Amino acid sequence: MTTLLHIECSPRKQRSASLQVAGNFIDRYVQHHPQTHVETLDLWSLQLPEFGEDAMSAKYAGLAGIPRTPAQQSVWEDLEALAAHLHRADILVMSVPLWNYGIPYKLKHYIDLVSQKDILFSFDPERGPQGMLQGKTAVLAYARGLDFSAQSTTPAERFDFQKPYMEAWLEFIGITDVHALIVEKTILGEDIDRNARSLASQQARDLADRLVRAG
Question: Do 114 and 83 touch, CB atoms closer than 8 A?
Fold first, then answer.
């Protein structure tokens, strides 16, 4: 049975363009594969732990190959539990709005917690870091208020630290089969917003159809 994990990165819920587009992908995919197990990880309902002294010490104990203290081990197990959602998933769907040219702080917090050696990547002195999530598919629904495409008449494209960051992170943890769904210009008026959402939602359904055929 396929496990699909949806990481919700927007707090806007029903008004969120990224959630709407991601939802269209998920609904169409499940129509094709009703047995799909869908998990949802809402970053805004989680009490994400701080990456404090014990977590940092646990990290460096692992890097140095020395035993962790009980407090350090407890913190580390919490990080492993957060990352377990990613390990279980066959398909990772992320709904990611653009905030201040980057990603929401809750998503950055989550990434910083789980992106650890022996949790999402291994390390070899000769080969360097190796991602541990090979063989998975990622679908990212990006929402932006303006046009950040290469065709934009503004210099907005060079301020896009959302999509490049996310795809660099996915590659780092071993996910190379990555598909982007982009809804843009959502703050340029109701008609433009509605049309942009409609177009991206259709692209999401089409992508689900293609992935099913390819599988």
Answer: yes
Q: What's domain 3-214's superfamily in CATH? A: Flavodoxin domain (3.40.50.360)
DSSP 193: H
pLDDT values of the chain reduced to their tens digit, one per residue, 215 residues: 899 999 999 999 889 999 999 999 999 999 999 999 999 999 999 999 999 999 999 999 998 889 999 999 999 999 999 999 999 999 999 999 999 999 999 999 999 999 999 999 998 888 889 999 999 999 999 999 887 776 655 566 778 899 999 999 999 999 999 999 999 988 888 999 999 999 999 999 999 999 998 87
- β partners of residue 99: 102
Q: What angle do CA 123, 126, 128 make, to 5 degrees?
A: 35
Distance CA 190, CA 198 (A): 12
Alpha carbons 48 and 57: distance in angstroms, whole number: 18
Instruction: Judge if pTM exceeds 0.85.
Output: yes
Distance CA 28, CA 203 (A): 11
- Residue 84 CA from chain centroid, whole number: 14
